[in-house]
Structures are given as structure tokens and as C-alpha cells.
Specification:
About 35% of the residues lie in helices and about 15% in strands. It is of the alpha/beta class. The structure holds pyridoxal-5'-phosphate.
């Protein structure tokens, strides 16, 4: 505890200089994006002023120099996740979503089609992948995933003759390492379990975007690592706006199926009379990075890795610090009561998750607030009030359609009916027929401190507890705490 508070004190001191934009602001939306430091912007500015950066597709001195710089950052980005360049390649993309699309685009190139399976807790960008698949399935729980993995494929007479793996239609299993809704962490053992299962030609796509924002990711054992890992760097460093796809080289052959080719990814192209082309031969990233790279952003990533390490002492330290903050916030929110003894917050925690345990829970808390009579307060009302105190939080549907629906007990029928009645995600007054259709999420980052939590709690006390939760927004009927408890994530 002493150690935790000492580190917290260190961050508080550093914040004045490094994050001057946070003065007077309580920023609790790091799962949306984290914030960049002054040192990072200064270092980037110095880099930009000290050299000419050419287009790596040229061969001038500046171009060659730029290529070398980019290559260096590639290696350092892989090292950040302890991924050996011998076994992994990194493809820079605009964001995690673009990286997901690259993988799905490759699978969509299989003539036989492919099956897509995804976990219910997936981000919208992962859910969207199903539209490219010939068959898709959503796993409603971790147990369903494990049952599927443990299932033995029946050995038919036909399959005895199909000895080559490629004869089975490929299948892709996608899941988030951490839910962007409530921060619950999912097992990182699944990629190797699937690889060792009886499922042939099955690959794993790990969406690590939420996880790596406050946690290390260890890809040091390539035999147990996901085939494809995607993330966004701005969620770790606040800058640059850049994402990546990390590919296990043993699975890189999947990208041979990708149809499209863009500038810079080919050795040669003809257009007439024959339409012929050959993709770049040296490396996977050369074949995959369409058009000019985000040169300046990649250079900035190099600065970000350096500065972040210097300020915070690495992702391990950030993980411990933010885990401590989330646990502290959770314990206070959980205990917050009205005078009549009823709870102020209904927190949506994963069943198997424990705040403070890095394996099962990240630094986010998803919840809804209640009036003192047990009826729900609309998340948009909470947002409106938070704005008056310069508190920055995320409210609404949080880009996690499956997790939200399950947690709030909404079926497709209810959601489609609400849509037909004119309701849209992110709309005000999102308590419908006594059921909330949105949530309030707070999330912590490397530069969050205990003071941010105190500010949020003080806000809840002033706006809700002290007034008995009366006079804030419209009333939804129902939502007694016993009903609310049954909404806890069935993990
Ligand atoms: C933020 C996030 C994404 C999307 O990232 P973009 O940068 O918007 O592409 C995907 N999955 C998870 C789990 C996220 O937290």
C-alpha cells in the first residue's frame, strides 16, 4: 500500500509538468484514448526539425534514412510486446480496426469461404468481421468457447483421406483480450488451446486494443501466441494515431489469399494486354502496407516508447498502478449508499473478475446509477452533470453491442423494437420501459491518480447521494437492486 501511494505521489508530481492540459480537469476515459505527455510532443518536435524524412518508396538518401528509422521502430514496437522479429512481423495500420479488416480481408479471399467465431464481449469492429464470413457464430460465454475448443471433430471416412490441413475450410476465432465495456480480461491461453485442439486450420485473432492500454502483453513464446494480434498505439501513449497488426510468421501464409494490392506492395505489375502482378518478396509487412506508410506517426511511435518508459517505468508499473486505482474506486463505488441504505451504483463486473487482479480485470468500471428508490438514472443525465464539473467519462453504448445487451438483459427483439420506435444508440433518455440502454464507464490510464477518483466520488455525492438521487433526470420504473444483480455478466 505504502509503495502504491508513493508511486501515486510520483505521478501526481509529474502531471503538473507533463500533462498541463489536465489542470482543472478530471479525465476518466483512458479506454477511449489515453493522453500524450509534453515530453513526447517535445521529443517528436525535435525529431521533425532535425532531419528530412523522405518517402521510403524512393531511393534518395533521405528516403533510405527514413526506411532505416522505420525499421528501427518496427523492431522496438515488437520488443515492447516481447515478440521476436524472427517469429513475428508487424504491419502498421491506421488503428486496430484497420488491422482487424486486413485479417478478415485475407480470410475472405479463400475460395472455399471461411467460418468466423467471435466472443460476445467483442468490440463492434470485431463483430463486423462476421459479414465477410460464409458462416459465423457468436459465443455467449467463456464456457461456450472452451466447450467448442474441447470438442473432438468426428473422424469420418472422408477425413481419413484428407491428410493435408488446407483441405479443411479455414476458421477464425476472434476475441478481445480485455472487454472495452467493463475491463474484464479474457484468458490468454485460448490461442494455444485452439492450436492444440482437434480443430484443423483454425486461427486466432486477438484484439489487444483495450488490454495493452494499461498492461504488458507477452508474445515471447511464439508457439502459444495468437496468430494475429491487433492494437492501437494511441490507447497506450495518447499519440501517435497509429495501430498495428502483429502476425505470427508461421501463420503468415493466410495473407496469400488477400486479393487487393496497393502501391508499394508489388515487385511488378502489368495492365495490358495481360493483367499480371507479383507481390513484394522480402517481407510480409512490405506486401501488406498499402500506399505510403504513416511515416511521421511511426517516427513518433519511437519517441512515445522511449518517453513512456522514462516517465512511468514500463507497462508493468502502469499495470500495477492502474489496477490499484481501479480496485480502490470499485471498493468505494460498491459501498456508496443513500440514506435509506440503497446502493447508488450498479456495477457491471465480470463474474470471474476481481478488481486488483491483473489476470482477470483491467482498469475500467462500467456501471449505472440509481435513484434512492431503486429506479435507474439515464447515463446521458450522468454525462450532462459530469460535464458541468469538467469530468470526462464515457456513457451510452460503449461500442460493445454483445456485452451491453447481455449485461442489461436486452434481447435482439427489445433492441430492434427500440430502434423501430426511433431510439438510437447514444441518444438522451436511454432508460426505456424501466431498463437502461446505456452505461457509464470510467477508466484509468498511466497518468491517473487517486485525486481523479476522489473528484468523481465527490461528484456522485454532491449530485446524487446528497439529493437522494431526486430531481436528476426522468424516472425509469423497476430496476430494483435484486433485478439489477441478475444483470451481472455471466462470464
Ligand atoms: C478501442 C478498441 C478498439 C477499436 O480501436 P480503434 O483504434 O478505434 O480502431 C477495438 N477493440 C477494443 C477492445 C478497443 O478497446
Amino acid at each position: 500500500m505504502q509503495e502504491r501511494l508513493a508511486y501515486n505521489e510520483k505521478i501526481s508530481l509529474l502531471r503538473d509538468d507533463e500533462y498541463p492540459m489536465l489542470k482543472g480537469i478530471t479525465y476518466l476515459d483512458h479506454a477511449g484514448t489515453s493522453l500524450y505527455s509534453k515530453s513526447l510532443i517535445d521529443a517528436f518536435s525535435r525529431e521533425m526539425m532535425s532531419q528530412v524524412l523522405g518517402n521510403p518508396h524512393s531511393t534518395s538518401t533521405s528516403a533510405l534514412n527514413t526506411s532505416q528509422r522505420i525499421q528501427d521502430v518496427r523492431i522496438r514496437a515488437l520488443k515492447l510486446f516481447r515478440a521476436d522479429p524472427e517469429h513475428f512481423d508487424i504491419i502498421f495500420t491506421a488503428n486496430a480496426t484497420a488491422a482487424i479488416k486486413l485479417v478478415l480481408e485475407a480470410f475472405a479471399g479463400y475460395k472455399s469461404g471461411f467460418s468466423y467465431r467471435y466472443h460476445r464481449d467483442s468490440h463492434t469492429s470485431l463483430v463486423g468481421g462476421r459479414e465477410l464470413a460464409s458462416r459465423s457464430q457468436c459465443f455467449a460465454s467463456d464456457t461456450e468457447v472452451e466447450m467448442w475448443m474441447n470438442r473432438r471433430r468426428r473422424c469420418s471416412l472422408l477425413s481419413l483421406f484428407k491428410t493435408k490441413k488446407s483441405h479443411t475450410n479455414p476458421s477464425l476465432f476472434a476475441y478481445p483480450a480485455q472487454s472495452n465495456m467493463n475491463g474484464r480480461r479474457l484468458p490468454l491461453t485460448w490461442p494455444s488451446k485452439l492450436r492444440n485442439s482437434s480443430h484443423q486450420n483454425a486461427y486466432t485473432l486477438l484484439d489487444a486494443a483495450a488490454l495493452v492500454s494499461t498492461s504488458p502483453l507477452d508474445l515471447s513464446d511464439h508457439t502459444t501466441s495468437p496468430d494475429f494480434t491487433v492494437l492501437s498505439f494511441y490507447k497506450i501513449f495518447g499519440f501517435p494515431d497509429l495501430g498495428c497488426l502483429i502476425v505470427r510468421k508461421a501463420s503468415a501464409h493466410v495473407f496469400e489469399q488477400r486479393k487487393y494490392f496497393g502501391g508499394g506492395t508489388t515487385e511488378m505489375v502489368t495492365v495490358s494486354p495481360e493483367q499480371w502482378f507479383v507481390r513484394k518478396e522480402n517481407s510480409l509487412h512490405e506486401r501488406m502496407e498499402d500506399g505510403t506508410l504513416a511515416i511521421r506517426s511511426i517516427i513518433a511511435l519511437g519517441c512515445a516508447i522511449d518517453v513512456h518508459e522514462r516517465l512511468f517505468g514500463g507497462l508493468d508499473k502502469i499495470s500495477t498502478h492502474t489496477g490499484f486505482l481501479a480496485k480502490y474506486a470499485y471498493s468505494i463505488l460498491e459501498g456508496l449508499r443513500y440514506e435509506n441504505g440503497r446502493p447508488v451504483c450498479q456495477i457491471y463486473k465480470g463474474e470471474r473478475s476481481t478488481y486488483g487482479d491483473q489476470i482477470t480485470q483491467g482498469a475500467s468500471i462500467a456501471m449505472n446509477l440509481l435513484h434512492s428508490d431503486g429506479s435507474w438514472i439515464s447515463s446521458s443525465t450522468v454525462q450532462k452533470l459530469a460535464k458541468t464539473k469538467d469530468i470526462h467519462i464515457r456513457t451510452g453504448s460503449l461500442c460493445n453491442p454483445g456485452g451491453m445487451a447481455q449485461t442489461l438483459g436486452l434481447g435482439s427483439v427489445e433492441i430492434k423494437r427500440a430502434f423501430a420506435e426511433g431510439f438510437r444508440c447514444g441518444q438522451e433518455a436511454d432508460v426505456r420501459a424501466g431498463v437502461p440502454m446505456g452505461m457509464v464507464r470510467i477508466s484509468f490510464g498511466a497518468m491517473s491518480t487517486v485525486d481523479d477518483i476522489e473528484m468523481f466520488i465527490q461528484f456522485l455525492r454532491e449530485e446524487f447521494v446528497d439529493s437522494g438521487g431526486e430531481g436528476v433526470g426522468e424516472k425509469g420504473v423497476g430496476g430494483s437492486s435484486s433485478q439489477a444483480e441478475s444483470c451481472d455478466l455471466k462470464a
